[in-house]
Write a structure and sequence with these properties.
Length: 221
């Protein structure tokens, strides 16, 4: 008898006497195949595995577990800051984001990965704007470091430590130029607190960026 079951390998252990594969299947398949599977317990099997490329491509376009974790962590920080429940704050944050982005309500179980990324960026921006302390370093929420830098410059937050910062020119303007009249829109900038600005001068700007894994960006405001 042959069975075709769709699932995921969630654990694989090896030992001196062989290995053990743990496969996860959904409830519907579990109920359907349970009587048959019971007959195969401790019986020799020939197991064939194949990748479901269609499902893999679909999963790559929807919210990831990591994105979902980041969203819930941010919402928890907001909820604790205002003294509300995480569930209530999730509804409110989604409502505000949908209103600002002019989109319909969405589910965090299967929304698009791009939408989830935009929502994460919006949540970090919201926390910066309202002075909400984050449990994790804000840089951890971004795959695109340049997007993180834009938000740090916008809110004058040090991209290294999260403290209040000044905006510094990474590219030199040049001696004798009037900074008030000079168009610096095409110059790279970075948001640094006084401590990290001094460190950047002491060890060199490039070395400082490499040390803390940050990048200067062109920011017009």
């Amino acid at each position: 008898m042959e069975l075709e079951i769709k699932g995921c390998i969630i654990k694989y252990d090896t030992g001196k006497k062989g290995g053990k594969i743990t496969i996860s299947i959904d409830d519907e398949q579990a109920r359907a195949f349970e009587p048959s599977l019971a007959r195969y317990r401790n019986k020799p099997l020939r197991l064939g595995l194949s990748l479901d490329m269609g499902e893999i491509q679909r999963l790559q376009t929807i919210i990831s577990d990591d994105q979902r974790r980041k969203i819930y962590a941010l919402i928890k920080d907001v909820a604790e800051s205002v003294g509300d429940s995480a569930d209530s704050m999730k509804k409110e944050m989604k409502r505000q984001y949908c209103s600002s982005a002019w989109i319909e309500n969405f589910s965090l179980s299967d929304c698009a990965a791009e939408l989830a990324g935009n929502f994460i960026e919006w949540l970090v921006d919201f926390c910066f704007m309202n002075g909400i302390a984050l449990t994790e370093h804000p840089k951890q929420y971004f795959d695109d470091l340049e997007r993180y830098q834009y938000i740090c410059i916008k809110h004058e937050i040090c991209c290294i430590c999260g403290q209040p910062a000044d905006i510094h020119h990474f590219d030199a303007i040049g001696i004798g130029r009037d900074r008030k009249d000079y168009d610096d829109s095409d110059h790279r900038k970075i948001a640094l607190c006084r401590i990290h600005h001094s460190e950047a001068h002491n060890i060199g700007r490039d070395t400082c960026c490499e040390k803390y894994h940050v990048v200067p960006v062109v920011y017009e405001g």
